[in-house]
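Case study B.
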Amino acid sequence: MGRKIMKRSFPYAAALAVGAALALAGASGTAFAQDYNAAKAAGLIGEKPDGYVGIVGNATPELRRMVDDTNIKRKAVYAEKAKAERATVEEYAFTSGCLLIAKTQPGMKYQTPGGAWKTRDASAPERDSRCP
Amino acid sequence: MNAARLTLKRPAAKTGDMVIERQGEGWSSPRPYIAAAILLAGSMTLGGCISVNAPDKPIVIELNINIKQEVIYRIAADAANTITENPDIF
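Model:
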């Protein structure tokens, strides 16, 4: 399993580092948050305008699992908070998406309202016109 | 009289054809095939012409079309708190 990750990630230096981290996490099962942050920093996953994370490039099973896991947890939080605010889950998620894209650090990936993945730079990110 | 004769003769000829076709092409039954053909012919005559073209613009899924800006502004502060409270998933 570890070999598979290494093979897939081999052409990309950044991805290789994350792949190694993921392989370690697969063995230990504890360093999940670190892998998530590493994948984010490496631009393998990015923030979407709908408030969830997405895979930017090639989807590996490891990235898929990481993204799905995060999004399921996010949706649960959105649902709970949206209820308290008397908003829909979509509204709460979308608002969070606005804020999360605004919070991305230079080098991280985010998705524009048009659906394209962009790398955050020093300028303001391209967001939906309704974003606060 | 003529019409009655023709309708009497046709089923026999058709059944023979279908049996041969079934043996040759491996259809378990000619019925779905006939039904599909009738349906296709029917929809073609009813609709006049069906044209299937690939869209010339990229498909953008407007999931958030119903989200109002006033709602976003109302819940923005709470959403910001939620994000800082859950650093492991945001």
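The beta strands of chain A are 45-47, 53-55, 109-111, 117-119. The remaining cases will be described in the next quarterly update.
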